[in-house]
Amino acid sequence: MIHLKDKLTTITCGSLSVTDFLISIKQIADELTALGAPPSDADLLVYATRGLGPVYKELITTIRTRDSVVPFKELFDQIINHETFLLNNDKHNSDPHPPTAHLAKHSLSSYRTPKPTFPSPALGFLPTPVVAHK
User: Fold this and answer.
1) What whole-number distance in Å separates Cα of residue 18 and Cα of residue 53?
2) Taxonomically, which superkingdom (predicted)?
3) What pLDDT, in 10s, does the model give residues 7-43?
């Protein structure tokens, strides 16, 4: 019996799914009940909320600050509902095409007036002068 109580006090969600974690707690509680030492709902609440990760912080705070102890069945349902909410929220927040920004650099040369296209004086050609006729 002490082994089961110790197991109950040290159980954590770890790599288990939340459902498997809660089922493990329920199985240990059922074994203790069969041995004549059923854990209280308050004990199960403490063990279950202690073993959850920080993702469940808000839910744990809400459950632990209630005036009355949450029965394990209700606790189980609330934690599973919260897990579903978290999974759906992650799906909505993980866009396969996140927003991007494209940086464009403009040089000042693109805003200058264009240079004349007549032949260069370096090649020996001079521009034809424009003569005004009177």
Assistant:
1) 10
2) Eukaryota
3) 988 888 888 888 899 999 999 999 999 999 999 999 9
